[in-house]
């Protein structure tokens, strides 16, 4: 039974922030596997990538993290299904990288045959370790005997084997002496035609290590020729009419010509030896020597151009020249042996192949354009190859990417629609086409009227105001002359405080405490309301405003969020405690998976709280009972279920410390104007969430699905 593909990532605390390049790594490996030098992402791991049914990227055009938290309750399905969430760091447009600029798909380094202008790119050592050539042979140079096929490899690749029932009647070359690293190399290549018997030899070429042609002979087939395959073999009926040489003659000559320790070199040499009906124990196959992933092979023509800088199998010639092909295969083997695997890997052959194919596609496109248009494009574009883009690379591998909702992108073979197309139509098209596509980008949007800068500024201020209200609690009344220090200490045990002020406008004093984390404020409301603090029985509550009327609902939803499953918040820690101290203290808790100690993003100092993630939800529930009231090095701990995952508390911190705070009546008037369209916006977001739900349900099992909130800039 096939194992399902799955994603594993470090998702806790500070690991919630990733760059566009890191997301690009994930998408590239998920879509391409080990092709095109794609490697496992540096920050997460995909298991059983080959079982992935597809990759789907849903883009919510010009929506950002602001929209996700402003309309958190409306994104009901998104919150429930998508377990892994990350903050994307500010960078250039990811979609441009996927669809046009090809970020991380650099032009190839200059090789002897394929060149690119600009600086050369040599893969880093970490890239080399993942190269199939390095994985197979290591980095060190070796002698030629390290590259000859083992008996097992010969059997696997359909080579004639001595004693095999299917090789009955085959002639052995008689080369039985042990091979050494100084054994002579000979290049061999044959051309075949199709006869009643199958593939029969029509021409044989043998070259020595200096490239001298020792044999270049036409051979008359034993049975009637059905297809001369002239396009590839170059053989015609007329050429074979006067030929008297038969297969047995060639077999005899080869046996005499080859030394007893000869090593034969060829490209897919098994086919040549099968056609020759000969068995030879020591071979180097260049189609296997220049290893690729997943059993694929480079063509001889490409390798000759990329590695040796030689053009072979020219389309201007009639058919292939077997002497030329034998010489090319021999020189490739000599290059590999002399230079070593590391130098060969540095050629970055996968990328060279991609670039070459993309150049061919571009040439075909140019040939189809009107002459004037083509000439104009040549004047405006640099003469060298442009970087291959991500979606073009997919096409090269035979996959058909699907684009819906990006009108500015128009690549050959891509399906696309206009962003002005209603979301409903885009959804309808996506439901039909996405399950059939290996890689899809689907873009939905709210419409230009909902992403205007003044509207975004108003939304931002509303979210900031609501967060501030949720982070702020009021406590009292206290007696006149109460001990402020003991109040600070008591409320500080609930979590890191941003500020604590005394409210004097009331008949008796109250305090206003603003916390840095939602859990701190909520813990204060739950644990200190009705408690005796500084000699007074106090009430702890949040300020009641229009924005906080649904606060309890929001808190409950945050608590049930899949990201907070099995995660608890612990407060009251001494700041002197290190992560190692805490690991020791909490090591007795069952199924503890991760401990995260938040830091002040400005000073880098630890806060007086931490988050604990457990492998099982029940273990988190059990831990809450144990920890509440637990004393660690003189500190009495308080705990509750987590509310804000790493990206949320980081975002809250940024909102509270950004320079974008505005005051005065002007902004108040602007935010008041939002009320008219905010109801519409909620409905639209709810509808978007339903679209995502419908599309998600249509996806095949084992599909990687990513939802992007790219923002405006």
How big a fraction of the residues is strand?
15-25%
Which percent range fits the helix content? Answer: 25-40%
Distance between the termini: 46 Å
Under CATH at level 1, the class of the domain at 142-339 stands as Alpha Beta
CATH architecture of the domain at 142-339: 2-Layer Sandwich
Return the average pLDDT rounded to an integer: 82
Structural class: alpha/beta
Low-confidence stretches: 101-122, 370-387, 408-419, 660-671
How many individual β-strands?
Answer: 28
**Cα gyration radius (Å):** 35 Å
How many individual helices? Answer: 28
CATH superfamily of the domain at 142-339: Ribonuclease H-like superfamily/Ribonuclease H
**Approximate shape:** elongated
CATH topology-level fold name of the domain at 142-339: Nucleotidyltransferase, domain 5
Instruction: Give the biggest beta sheet.
Output: 6 strands, mixed
């Amino acid at each position: 039974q096939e194992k399902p593909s799955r994603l594993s990532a470090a998702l806790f605390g500070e690991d919630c922030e990733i760059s566009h390049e890191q997301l690009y790594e994930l998408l590239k490996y998920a879509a391409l596997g080990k092709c095109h030098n794609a490697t496992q992402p540096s920050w997460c791991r995909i298991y059983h990538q080959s079982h992935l049914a597809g990759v789907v990227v849903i883009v919510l055009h010009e929506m950002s993290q602001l929209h996700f938290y402003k309309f958190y309750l409306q994104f009901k399905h998104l919150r429930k299904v998508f377990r892994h969430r990350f903050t994307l760091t500010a960078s250039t447009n990811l979609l441009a990288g996927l669809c046009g600029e090809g970020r991380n798909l650099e032009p190839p380094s200059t090789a002897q045959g394929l060149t690119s202008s600009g600086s050369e790119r040599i893969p880093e050592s970490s890239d080399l370790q993942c190269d199939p050539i390095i994985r197979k042979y290591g980095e060190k140079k070796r002698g030629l005997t390290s590259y000859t096929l083992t008996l097992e490899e010969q059997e696997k690749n359909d080579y004639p084997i001595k004693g095999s029932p299917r090789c009955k009647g085959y002639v052995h070359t008689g080369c039985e002496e042990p091979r050494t690293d100084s054994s002579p190399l000979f290049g061999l290549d044959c051309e075949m035609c199709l006869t009643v018997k199958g593939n029969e030899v029509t021409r044989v070429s043998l070259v020595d290590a200096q490239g001298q042609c020792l044999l270049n002979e036409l051979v008359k087939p034993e049975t009637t020729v059905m297809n001369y395959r002239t396009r590839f073999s170059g053989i015609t009926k007329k050429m074979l009419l006067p030929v008297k040489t038969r297969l047995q003659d060639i077999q005899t000559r080869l046996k005499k010509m080859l030394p007893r320790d000869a090593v034969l070199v060829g490209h897919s040499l098994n086919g040549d030896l099968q056609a020759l009906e000969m068995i030879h124990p020591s071979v180097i196959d260049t189609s296997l020597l220049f290893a690729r992933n997943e059993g694929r092979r480079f063509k001889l023509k490409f390798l000759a151009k990329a590695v040796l800088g030689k053009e072979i199998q020219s389309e201007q010639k009639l058919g292939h020249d077997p002497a030329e092909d034998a010489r090319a295969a021999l020189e490739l083997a000599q290059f590999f042996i002399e230079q070593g695997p590391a130098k060969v890997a540095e050629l970055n052959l996968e990328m060279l192949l991609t670039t070459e194919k993309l150049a061919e596609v571009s040439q075909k496109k140019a040939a189809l354009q009107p002459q004037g248009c083509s000439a104009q494009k040549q004047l405006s574009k640099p003469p060298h190859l442009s970087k291959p883009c991500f979606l073009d690379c997919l096409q090269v591998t035979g996959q058909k990417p699907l684009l819906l909702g990006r009108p500015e992108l128009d690549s050959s073979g891509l399906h696309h629609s206009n962003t002005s197309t209603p979301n409903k139509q885009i959804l309808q098209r996506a439901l039909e086409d996405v399950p059939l596509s290996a890689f899809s980008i689907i873009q939905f949007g709210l419409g230009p009227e909902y992403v205007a800068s003044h509207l975004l500024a108003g939304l931002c201020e509303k979210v900031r105001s609501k967060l501030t209200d949720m982070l702020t609690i009021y406590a009292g009344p206290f007696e006149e002359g109460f001990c402020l220090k003991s109040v600070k200490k008591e409320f500080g045990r609930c979590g890191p405080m941003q500020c604590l002020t005394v409210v004097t406008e009331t008949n008796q004093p109250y305090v206003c405490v603003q916390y840095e984390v939602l859990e701190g404020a909520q813990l204060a409301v739950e644990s200190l309301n009705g408690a005796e603090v500084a000699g007074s029985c106090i009430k702890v509550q949040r300020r009641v405003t229009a924005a906080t009327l649904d606060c309890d609902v929001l808190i409950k939803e945050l608590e049930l969020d899949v990201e907070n499953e099995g995660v608890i918040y612990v407060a009251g820690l001494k700041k002197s405690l290190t992560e190692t101290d805490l690991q020791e203290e909490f090591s007795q808790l069952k199924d503890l998976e991760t401990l995260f100690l938040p830091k002040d993003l400005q000073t880098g100092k630890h806060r007086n709280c931490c988050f604990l993630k457990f492998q099982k939800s029940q273990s988190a529930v059990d831990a809450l009972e144990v920890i509440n009231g637990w004393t660690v090095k003189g500190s009495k701990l308080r705990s509750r279920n987590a509310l804000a995952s790493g990206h949320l508390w980081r975002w809250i911190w940024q909102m509270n410390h950004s320079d974008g705070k505005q005051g005065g009546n002007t902004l108040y008037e602007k935010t008041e104007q939002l009320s008219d369209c905010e109801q519409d916006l909620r409905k639209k977001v709810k509808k978007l969430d339903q679209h995502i739900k419908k599309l998600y349900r249509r996806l095949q099992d084992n599909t990687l699905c990513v939802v992007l909130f790219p923002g405006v800039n």
